[in-house]
Every structure is written in C-alpha cells, then in structure tokens.
Amino acid sequence: xxxxxxxxxxxxxxRICSRSITAIAERLLRFLDKADxxxxxxxxxxxEMIRLNSRYRNQNTPTNVLSFPFSxxxxxxxxxxxxxxxxxxxxxVDTAAREAKESDQSLHARITWLLVHGLLHLxxxxxxxxxxxxxxxxxxxxxxxxxxxxxxxxxxTHLAINVDHIATIRQARGITEPDPVTAAAICELAGxxxxxVHLREDRRHxxxxxxxxxxxxxxxxxxxxxxxxxxxxxxxxDIKPDMVTLVPEKRQELTTEGGLNVTGQKKKxxxxxxxxxxxxxxxxxxxxxxxxxxxxxxxxxxxxxEIHTGRYCDSKSEKDCDREFDLxxxxxxxxxxxxLRVNAGHGLDYxxxxxxxxxxxxxxxxxxxxxxxxxxxxGLEKAVREMFNIVRTAGHGI
Length: 398
Ligand code: PXP
Fold this sequence. Notes:
TIM Barrel; Collagenase (Catalytic Domain)
C-alpha cells in the first residue's frame, strides 16, 4: 500500500501535518481491507478548488473535498497493470479550516473526517443518491472515525508526571518523607504513563537513591532529566532509565529556564547522545520552539525533542498566548515531519494543557508543578486523574 500525499496548499497561516494525515490514511485503508491499494491525496486552496469544481461539477464555488475514483474514465488497459489504484482525494484546506472553526473542531479532526468522507466516495458510497444511501454512508463514517479513535493507543498524547517537588518538600526537612518513590507509584495507579525526575548536580530535590529505587519500582517509563555533566551522565549510564531528557542547568535558577542551545553545543551534545545510544538509552533534547534548534537536534541524532511550553503558559494576554501556541504547533510539526519524536512540557497546568495535548504531533507531556500543587489540596490521586482526563479528552479528535 502507498499513500501519496501532495501538499499544494502553501499558505503559511494554516498548517497541516502531512505525516500524521498519511498515517491516518494508511490506517483507514487497512480498516477497509484495501491495504493492497494505492491512494493519492492532494491539498489545495479554495481558488484551485473553484477551478476544479467548476470544471468537473459545473459549480463555481469552493467545496471541501472532491473524490476521483481511478476506475472512472480510466483507460481500461490500465486495469491490467500490477497496481491497484483507488483514486484521488482532493481537499481544500481553506474550506476545511473554515468548517473546523464553525464546528469547533481542530483542523486535524476536520481533515480526517474529509479524508474518511472522500475515501468512502472512492469506494462507491454516495450520500447524494438517496436518503437511505446517505444514512449508510454516515454510519460508515462514524464507524471509521470511532475505530480511528479506539485505535489511537500508539498515537494519543501520554501524560508523564514529574515528581521532583515531592522531593522538594522532603528536602525542606531533610528527613525521609514525603517519598517521591511512593508518589510515583500513586501517580502510575492513577493513570500516569511515565515518571520524570530531574537529578540536579546540586541534588536540591531528587537524590541518587530516588532514581535507583524508581528504576526498580516504576512500571511505566522512567525519564531522567539531566544536564550533560560527566557525573550525571555516568549515573544515567549505570541506572539505565528508559530515556533521558537533556536540559540546560544553572545552579541559581528556580527551575529550568530556557531550552538547550543545541546549535551552540552540537559537538558536546552529540557525544552525550552517542554514549547514551551505545547503552540503548534514547535521548530527548529540551528546546525552545525554534526551527534552528529542531534542525540541529535532528542533525546530532536526538530521538526526541521536548518543546518548551513555558512562554505559552506564562503569556499574559490572549494574543501572546495564541502567538506562543502557534510557535509550539509549528515546531512540533517541523520536528515530527523530520522524523523526531515530540514531547512537550514546562509550566503546563489545568488551564493550559488541553490545547497542547490536542496537537496530533505531540506524543507525551511532562507535567510536574501544577499536579503536585493541586495534590497538596485535593490529594495526589485526584490531581493526577483530573490531569489525565484533560489530556485524554483534549480535542485532537483523532
Ligand atoms: N520539562 C522539563 C524539561 C522541565 O525541566 C520541567 C521542570 O522540571 C518540566 C517539564 C515540568 O515543568 P512543570 O513542573 O512546570 O510542570
């Protein structure tokens, strides 16, 4: 099976993630037992759609999707070729974006629906034929969308919880409670899909003992956040977390302030990535949502990037918030398209998380302070469950 996606849309203001749409189209072909067929998808703008719609359907207006089955009007000698073609689905991104806004959906969810609709047309479903056929087509659309949603276990956004601040409270007294290891177990029972700890050089919260015990006890995934310092690298190579996230670390800062300057220290970071890679430990680089940092992360062999969401979370006005969100969405897409896996985090809370979790390109969110702060008031299990629900129900639709 091959899905050929061509993006001729080209307007920068609206972004579509080609890789994610291609993956959805491949899943749909499998659901429909057409995995041995090829499919072409083309994204265009309204001006181009008007041209096509007036030429093929005598309508001088844009439409959301046009389907051209391969069998329709094709030279019959082509049928004997050893390729199975379904045909072309052409989507106007301008119209899809308008419809997404009107129906309060993400563009990704709207395009997914149009893809399902166009694909069913290619297979002979036709809602314009009769009411009965319209009902059959609509049922099939719903069935496929539901199946995509259920089948999303590998693509849905995961919640990883940073338990550093449980250790911060413990260290305030220098005793043994509260224990971040116990907290991590409760987080997992309440739905966390990963545990993150930052072993700082000054050991202000997490201690070596915590990381060693967590390695033995947690059932999900241990993500060790760390600066690229020799001593900490050796500990990571010894403990072997499931992944490490490299962050810039300054002794005076209250928390990690900005993303890594990957472009400025490619050699040093590449060496650390290579060492980790020899020990089978994937590396994530915590970076600001900047194209040059993403490109450099890819060049030096990172497996993941974690996009810094701090400026988006700290925005004081709606306009700033939207601008920062757009930067994150664009960065996540750029990284995803380059083949990097994408996480995000820092400063996310019960108000700001949903929008980020709705981005189809983001695999995992790393959230600490907001959950632990709420846990002090409502209990850890409840605080985790509430955040888990936000992440799971965030509208990436598909
Ligand atoms: N991601 C990274 C790289 C971090 O340094 C932190 C803070 O420890 C977080 C995510 C979590 O941030 P917060 O505690 O604000 O949720």
